[in-house]
């Protein structure tokens, strides 16, 4: 396996600009509103971000659990992991090291971590028709991924790149998807973007099919971005835009309600 080249194509440039504009608009409402207390708007923003976290828990449970008991256990693990991530962000710490990767793996997938604590998988794994890298190559691939991640300036592209490539490396026997998505959302939330979640079964199918097609094409042309890889980046950016827009509309609406009451 060869990691994706760092010459990331210009993807959804307009949508990326819209995300930045709405993020700035949210913080203008929070910081400069003369009609309402900034704390009120800040509380609204934080509570809505928590709503997204709860929705993230529900949707990820649908993807990772086979029955109700497994879903409940998964949501508990995910909420504990999110609390850890939030505490780290409050300490001005972003996701950037392999140590943090193992921390997330232990929290979000404790049963898998107990089987091989602080180690990558020692067995071969296949995702559909895609054969993941052999165990002997995992350490160097993950180390290279963290090095490359630091070369990507834009936080959104950095987070999506990491997501795509860590899933392709598949360093753990189990729990790769949930660990990767938490790591990605840690990077996004640290940089004040909302987390990304899968909203329904249709989007879940699209997510899996796009990744699978991207991996297959990269096996044939490993040094070239292909349409499926680009589509995955576009879909993730669209999800960030959807969540950012949701937050802005909520904050703006509450501001109007308070204004009418005063």
TrEMBL record:
Ranges for domain Fido: 96-235
Signal peptide extent: none
PANTHER family for the chain: FIDO DOMAIN-CONTAINING PROTEIN (PTHR13504:SF38), FIDO DOMAIN-CONTAINING PROTEIN DDB_G0283145 (PTHR13504)
Protein known as: Fido domain-containing protein
Organism: Gangjinia marincola
């Amino acid at each position: 396996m060869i990691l994706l080249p760092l010459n990331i194509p210009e993807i959804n440039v307009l949508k990326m600009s819209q995300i930045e504009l709405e993020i700035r608009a949210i913080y203008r409402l929070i910081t400069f509103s003369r009609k309402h207390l900034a704390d009120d708007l800040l509380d609204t923003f934080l509570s809505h971000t928590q709503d997204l976290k709860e929705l993230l828990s529900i949707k990820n449970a649908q993807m990772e659990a086979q029955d109700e008991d497994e879903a409940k256990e998964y949501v508990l693990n995910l909420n504990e992991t999110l609390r850890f991530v939030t505490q780290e962000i409050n300490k001005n710490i972003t996701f950037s090291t392999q140590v943090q990767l193992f921390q997330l793996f232990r929290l979000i997938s404790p049963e898998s971590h107990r089987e091989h604590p602080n180690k990558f998988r020692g067995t071969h794994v296949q995702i559909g028709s895609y054969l993941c890298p052999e165990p002997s190559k995992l350490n160097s691939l993950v180390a290279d991924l963290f090095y490359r991640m630091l070369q990507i300036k834009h936080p959104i592209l950095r987070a999506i790149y990491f997501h795509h490539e860590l899933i392709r490396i598949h360093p753990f026997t189990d729990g790769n998807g949930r660990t990767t998505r938490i790591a990605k959302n840690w990077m996004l939330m640290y940089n004040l973007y909302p987390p990304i979640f899968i909203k329904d079964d249709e989007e879940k199918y699209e997510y899996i099919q796009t990744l699978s097609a991207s991996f297959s094409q990269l096996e044939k042309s490993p040094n070239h971005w292909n349409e499926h890889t680009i589509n995955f980046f576009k879909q993730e950016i669209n999800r960030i835009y959807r969540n950012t827009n949701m937050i802005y509309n909520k904050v703006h609406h509450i501001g109007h309600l308070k204004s009418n009451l005063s």
